[in-house]
Design a protein that fits this description.
The complex is a heterodimer of chains A (674) and B (552). Chain A has 674 residues and is α/β, with parallel strands linked by helices. Chain A has helices at 30-45, 51-64, 68-74, 80-91, 105-108, 113-119, 142-152, 163-189, 201-220, 222-253, 262-267, 289-297, 317-326, 345-355, 374-384, 405-427, 443-448, 459-469, 489-510, 514-533, 535-555, 558-563, 566-594, 600-603, 606-626, 663-673; strands spanning 94-96, 121-126, 132-136, 156-161, 276-282, 306-313, 332-337, 360-363, 369-370, 389-398, 439-442, 473-483. In chain A, β2 (121-126) and β3 form a beta hairpin. Chain B has a 5-stranded mixed β-sheet with strand order 2-1-3-5-4, sandwiched between helices. In chain B, β4 and β5 form a beta hairpin. The longest helix of chain B has 30 residues, at 232-261. Chain B is elongated and about 80 Å long. The chains are: A alpha/beta (674), B mainly alpha (552). Chains A and B meet through α23 and α24 of A and α9 and α11 of B.
Chain lengths: 674, 552
């Protein structure tokens, strides 16, 4: 379908002529042009920027349409204070400093806190005439001002404030409220879906009954009971393995991710791109902050449309100081999460989400290196997906996969998971346990879902399932984020034990009311959820079966022969010899499917890696009873600086599909912009 | 864009990272036609099952190798206790395991209606693979049908497709694996390498000879990648992807063999020398090709010429496959790896790879595609009467002549003799099994050497009746053979089979002439004797325990 003429992208003209900055730009209103010219004159006349900086800013202004000053500040060409001064002069407004003033809580309370956060507007004083002085980040649109005045019940006068200061003050005055919400929102609104208790009394009763039953039966019929237990375990093993195999085979035969080409990205009209919030939870990551900022700086998205929340814990002075040292432009917001329990990543994300101003939001970890076009791809993906798709998951890979055998095995596992398993699950409409990073959301929908569960240590997986239960869906896009593969066994075990603990925790949460769950997501979804989370139980069972097999091979112990009769023996044998091979082969397939040929030989070492996985699974399982909400911190920055990254980003396709992007995208974008 | 528009989909100029294959997405390929594949599968399965049922039930032309394998699978399910180890090391494991679902229902196994089902679906799957390959090389529908009919009516192929020969299992999978690699060559899509690797692994454990074509293909993949400019890393990774399944499968089998028999390579068959010289082997190989697969005489040189003249790697690869199929039987014979050297069935792989090669020629000589396929059809049709006549006279064969006699006369071949001098038919086994079913009940009542009396065991449908060498392994079995009283009630012996361990122990009883072991039932091939409660075996020699084969 052809694009509407007025939205035809400028990239269609191979040699665009540089517009005369003294004239009105295409698509620019006369009023905007006048305003821009005045601003340009002000900046140049006062020597605040160079001609080259102005040229650069005008190029972006033409492409994006955001205020010139905002563009300059976002690119570090103008300080925020100068921006405020220029705007004050330009709009005839007064400036207000929020650094030292103690604000009157009664005045602040005049405006509902949600409105304050939404408009970045804060009542700071009332003058003798009863006019409320309102600190704002930028001059408000008359309609917005009118709305605020309605809420205040009086006239308001705008005072321009430094955005960084205003942001800090807004955070400070709402800290208690935001903390309370970030911890208890889900717990209060949907307690049955919150992991604040590991298991319900009913679940504990069922488990106790089951254990007692097994013990009693084992005392009365020891061999028969062992046969039954092994039979059930083998059946679970078989089902989980068969499910994973079927998924990967399906993905191996087709390309299931949503493909977005270079042409799609080139056709995007950046004027219409929405604000995008990036949440980056940080804890003791001071040494990687600089890399993080550089990585985010490479994102191909207008900086003025980015709302980057660097989420720090209040006691993490190292990271806060490292951020402050960088003197970042105001699209970077340092969000300090007050000390409170549980001190988890999902709580920090919830905190950041409540401050988010983006229409979309995404989570990246500190060490992530997202593909530069990922945000644009996500925007396009959302526009092309059905309305119930509120989450888009990008693929993950590692930039240090060749560092050692552990990182290579990790990369092979990710290749299988993100290139084969998840795309197949998404295509099948199954509930997807999200990866911990690079998941993009519609912000309002995410808030509506109750966001992340702060008590769940795999909040990503839990959110993916909760999202599915809410009738929403997740899609996969063919865009990759590189992250750091754990290169040290101890660190790897800690991370993986948390994942396994979280998977069991998540399973317990969602299986509190199994029949309700079945009704919500149907038999296929129910089976998929259980088989996906059941992989942890398989990891728990592995060492037991390995031990029994080894013991039997060396001793031919009659008891072992007795407890593996007929069909049970056949299933167990098939799993041992065929199942293990299949998983090994799928690791090979994942690496090859992704084009990581150098990793293939390491896939043959997968059985050793499974040993580590089982070790971590048992650690997590035990911790579920001893310290269920403890967040095993993964240390980042352990990649070898002498071992340069060798992983390539898979290039975006440059082939146009037969059907061009439909007009819906543009229509939706117009609405969003409006 | 179709497959024919492209020389190959390998990137002419490798991408910046040197990768010449495509990953993670699909390249142009022929559209799937599930209904066509299903129709081909259904037609040929039905045809071969129909022929097979007539062969087994009407003409009594039954392969005893198949009966042995079926009996082993019956023991997997219905022995007391069920025994996976019944698979044994005599046959490639998957050739037996893949037929095990057929014996889940014991009455079906007993009635032998399942015999054609061992081979017919695999033969039909082979037809589907050939048909899909023809679609990939753009052979029009009518000509595809001609090729399928030409191959399907080949009497040698039809016989092995109908008679429950497990050879078809490995062959069909090998052809599918090779077909995957040809598709990989056309599409440069790496997933076909993975699928081929998996298929080769299964084929290798279903028939060890498949490993020859796996080795040829392994080299072929590396050569193709290298010629397309792939870097070492890509060649290594792709080769690992292709080889990993087969290597794992072999390693597993070696490990099993080591664990259970302490002979890691004990599964590789070794047979006494039959005294055939190298010169005679070459001559016999020539006759095998001429009588069984004359198409290869034309196709092999044509592939070499086209491969060299057009620098067509795939043509040379196909030539290597055909050459491997021609050389392998003779090599097996010279290395004493086969009990029936240069048998007529060895012509089957030659025939099939010659067809694959001819199809590649049709694709390579695109301007003459229809002519090449037309000639292929003519050759296939012409070879039908030729092969039929050679099956009657070829000196080294199994039941081929019995099959042709049955076809020409329409009569049962019960009691007739094969070219190897073996008696055709299963009436004696049926009679013995019938008596046992009527008179013997319980578990482990009959001591027998299952390696020789498998047909009777199968036809009873109840291996639990027998105390055989699989139940508790040879050691305990020999102890019972020495002192059977109080443990079993009967001994089942084969009358004229010197390989039967029990017959070696009780030669007089096998003939029905041991007065202390009264005959319960006997026929031309078997004797069932009662074991009195006070029976004590006179001290004599120890039988030879090295026999474990299942052929008759």
């Amino acid at each position: 379908m052809a694009l509407p003429p007025d939205l035809r992208p400028h990239t269609e003209d191979p040699t665009p002529r540089r517009p005369d900055p003294q004239r009105q730009f295409p698509g620019e209103s006369a009023r905007d042009a006048t305003s821009r010219l005045a601003m340009t004159a002000l900046l140049m006349d006062n020597g605040l920027i160079t001609a080259a900086q102005l040229e650069f800013a005008l190029e972006e202004y033409r492409a994006v349409g955001d205020p010139l000053c905002d563009i300059l500040v976002a690119h570090g060409m103008l300080t925020e204070d100068l921006r405020v001064a220029v705007l004050c002069q330009s709009y005839g407004l007064q400036q207000v400093s929020l650094v030292d003033d103690e604000l009157d809580p009664a005045i602040i309370a005049l405006l509902p806190w949600e409105t304050s956060l939404a408009w970045h507007a804060l009542p700071v004083a009332r003058d003798a005439d009863g006019v409320v002085l309102l600190a704002v980040a930028r001059p408000l649109h008359p309609n917005a001002l009118a709305d605020i005045e309605d809420l205040l019940g009086c006239r308001a006068e705008q005072l321009l404030a430094n955005r960084v200061e205003l942001d800090r003050v807004l955070q400070a005055i709402n800290a208690e409220r935001l903390t309370e919400l970030s911890i208890n929102n889900l717990r209060d609104t949907a307690p049955e879906l919150s992991g604040h208790i590991v298991s319900t009394p009913a679940q504990r009763g069922v488990m106790a009954f089951g254990v007692a039953l097994v013990v009693v039966c084992a005392l009365i019929w020891p061999v028969a009971t062992m046969i039954a237990v092994i039979g059930v375990a083998s059946a679970i093993y078989l089902l989980v393995s068969a499910y994973k195999f079927s998924l990967t085979l399906r993905a191996l035969g087709t390309h299931l991710e949503l493909d977005i080409t270079d042409e799609h990205i080139a056709m995007l009209d950046e004027h219409l791109l929405p604000m995008y919030t990036i949440l980056v939870p940080l804890y003791r990551e001071g040494r990687v902050v600089r890399h993080l900022v550089e990585g985010l700086g490479e994102l191909n998205y207008p900086r003025t449309r980015l709302d980057i929340k660097l989420l720090c814990e209040a006691d993490d002075e190292e990271t806060i100081a490292a951020i402050a040292e960088l003197d970042l432009p105001p699209q970077f917001h340092t969000v300090v999460v007050p000390a409170s329990l549980p001190k988890t990543k999902p709580k920090a994300c919830n905190y950041g989400l409540m401050l988010a101003s983006g229409m979309f939001c995404v989570i990246y970890d500190a060490e992530d290196r997202p593909e530069p076009n990922q945000l644009k791809k996500a925007v396009i993906a959302f526009s092309r997906m059905p309305e119930n798709v509120i989450c888009v998951q990008a693929k993950l890979n590692h930039f240090n996969q060749h560092q050692n055998i552990l990182t290579a095995c990790f990369a092979n596992e990710y290749a299988m998971h993100f290139d084969l398993v998840l795309p197949a699950m998404a295509a099948a409409g199954s509930p997807i346990p999200l990866g911990g990073t690079s998941n993009h959301f519609l912000t309002e929908a995410l808030r509506g879902l109750g966001a992340w569960d702060p008590y769940n240590v795999t909040e990503d997986a839990d959110l993916g399932l909760r999202l599915h239960r809410g009738g929403f869906r997740t899609a996969m896009i063919d865009s990759t984020t590189l992250e750091e593969a754990n290169s040290e066994v101890g660190n790897w075990i800690r991370q993986r034990s948390r994942w396994n603990k979280g998977y069991i925790q998540t399973w317990l949460v969602h299986m509190r009311h199994p029949f309700a769950l079945l009704g919500q997501i149907g038999p296929r979804g129910f089976a998929s959820l259980n088989l996906t989370l059941g992989s942890t139980f398989v990891l728990l069972m592995n060492p037991i079966f390995w031990f029994l097999t080894t013991l039997y091979a060396f001793t031919r112990m009659h008891l072992i022969q007795q407890v593996f009769p007929g069909v049970v023996f056949y299933i167990a044998s098939a799993l041992l010899f065929v199942g293990n091979f299949i998983f090994l082969f799928l690791n090979v397939a994942g690496g090859l499917h992704r084009g990581d040929f150098g990793l293939t030989r390491n896939a043959l070492l997968s059985p050793l890696y499974w040993g580590l996985m089982s070790w971590a699974a048992w650690k997590g399982f035990i911790q579920l009873f001893t310290n269920p909400f403890y967040w095993e911190k993964t240390e980042h920055g352990l990649d070898d600086p002498n071992h340069p990254p060798t992983v390539r980003m898979r290039p975006t396709r440059s082939t146009l599909p037969e059907v061009a992007m439909d007009d819906l995208l543009w229509g939706e974008r117009e609405e969003a912009s409006a | 864009m179709t497959l024919l528009d492209l020389e190959t989909n390998f990137r002419r100029s490798p991408s910046s990272d040197g990768v010449v294959q495509t990953q993670g997405r699909r390249n142009p390929d022929v559209p799937r036609r599930r209904w066509e594949s299903l129709a081909v599968f259904a037609v040929f399965t039905g045809l071969y099952v129909w022929i097979g049922e007539w062969l087994v039930q009407g003409a009594h032309v039954v392969s005893f190798v198949t009966l042995d394998q079926l009996n082993r699978t019956l023991m997997i399910w219905h022995n007391s206790p069920p025994k996976l180890s019944a698979v044994g090391f005599n046959y490639p494991p998957l050739s037996t395991l893949l037929m095990s679902p057929l014996t889940i229902v014991a009455p079906w196994a007993r009635s032998l209606v399942i015999v054609p089902l061992v081979s017919a679906p695999f033969a039909a799957y082979l037809m589907v693979s050939v048909n899909t390959l023809m679609r990939r090389v753009a052979v029009p529908g009518l000509l595809r049908a001609g090729v399928l009919v030409g191959l399907g009516c080949n009497p040698l192929f039809a016989f092995y497709a109908s008679d429950g020969a497990s050879d078809l299992v490995a062959l069909s999978l090998t052809v599918a694996a090779v077909s995957c690699l040809l598709t990989w060559y056309l599409t440069a899509d790496i997933r076909f390498v993975l699928l081929s690797g998996l298929t080769f692994a299964v084929a290798g454990l279903a028939g060890y000879q498949s490993l020859v074509w796996f080795a040829v293909s392994f080299v072929g993949v590396s050569v193709v990648l290298s010629r397309n400019g792939a870097r070492e890393e890509e060649i290594e990774g792709t080769s690992v992807g292709l080889a990993a399944p087969a290597v794992y499968a072999l390693a597993l089998w070696v490990g099993f063999s080591l664990l259970l028999t302490h002979r890691p390579f004990g599964w590789i068959p070794r047979f006494p020398s039959d005294g055939i010289s190298f010169g005679a082997t070459v001559t016999d190989t020539g006759r095998l090709v001429l009588d069984g697969a004359p198409l290869a005489i034309v196709v092999l040189p044509a592939l070499v010429v086209v491969g060299l003249a057009r620098r067509d790697s795939l043509a040379l690869w196909c030539a290597a496959l055909v050459a491997g199929a021609i050389i392998a039987p003779g090599a097996s014979s010279l290395l004493h790896l086969t009990a029936s050297p240069l048998a007529m069935r060895d012509a089957l792989p030659i025939l099939l790879f010659a067809i694959v090669g001819a199809l590649w020629l049709a694709r390579s000589l695109a301007g003459s595609r229809l002519t090449v396929v037309g000639l292929l059809i003519v050759a296939l049709v012409a070879s039908v009467p030729w092969t039929y006549s050679q099956m009657r006279t070829f000196p080294r064969q199994n039941l081929e002549s019995a099959f042709t006699s049955a076809l020409s006369s329409g009569a049962s071949q019960e009691g007739s003799r094969t070219k190897n001098g073996e008696v055709v038919g299963i009436d004696t086994e049926k009679a013995m099994a019938g008596w046992i079913r009527a008179h013997v009940h319980g578990v482990d009542q009959i001591l027998t050497d299952n390696a020789q009396t498998y047909a009777v065991m199968l036809l009873t449908g109840d291996p639990g009746l027998f105390l055989d060498r699989v139940d508790k392994s040879d050691g305990p079995w020999m102890r019972v053979a020495d002192a059977p009283a109080h443990t079993v009630r009967y001994l089942l012996l084969s009358r004229h089979n010197t390989q039967d361990l029990l017959t070696q122990t009780y030669p007089a009883a096998a003939n029905g002439t041991d007065p202390s072991l009264p005959v319960a039932f006997a026929d031309a091939r078997y004797t069932l004797v009662r074991v009195p409660a006070d029976y004590v075996r006179p001290v004599t020699g120890t039988p030879d325990q090295t026999t474990s084969g299942g052929t008759r």
